[in-house]
Amino acid sequence: MMNYNKIVxxxxxxxxxxxxxxxxxxDHLEPVSGIFGDYDFAFDYHTKIRKVLxxxxxxxxxxxxxxxxxxxxxxxxxxxxxxxxxxxxxxxRVCKSKIWYNxxxxxxxxxxxxxxxxxxxxxxxxxxxxxxxxxxxxxxxxTIGFDGTDYYFIVFDNGIKAGKIWTPNEKSKMGRLVExxxxxxxxxxxxxxFDKNLKDKIELLNKELN
Length: 210
Description:
By secondary structure, this protein is of the alpha+beta class. It has helices spanning 4-24, 40-52, 119-134, 173-188, 196-209, and strands spanning 30-31, 63-69, 75-82, 87-95, 110-117, 149-156, 160-166. The chain has a 7-stranded antiparallel sheet, with helices on one face.
């Protein structure tokens, strides 16, 4: 009879294989399930995200990038273009504690940062995420994971387009998309500049996705 330690080892090995397969298959986003496609626990969690993290944000930002880590607080980046006022803003929000499995989720505080950008920067950012979402398709194999991070990308462009990726390989196209999203968050928080290096990353990935 196979001993307990060997069984545990084989289970872990299979999970690692699935995890690596998921990471290597990271050159496109996958469709986001609607209300009828969500598991009950996911629907409950996503509802709490909307009520806490997304509270009072626009229902239709030009771009939304939501990050749901396994072990740290959730956060979101919005890009809004107010054409009447001719003002464009990046808005970053992060929960002070994690919503997932938090009995006091309704009392969680949210920090907000806001950064005005120009039209040239907007015109550089938007096509990248639009092209990434235009390439959304179902994965050939189901992605299974017990830790990691879920990334959601939403564009409001002639209707809602939404895609997601789970813990992509850093060097893959979607891994680089996540990296750019995180760079834009740092920019919104005044941690980095919107410099030539960031522009080059955006232009190169956009060219590859187009």
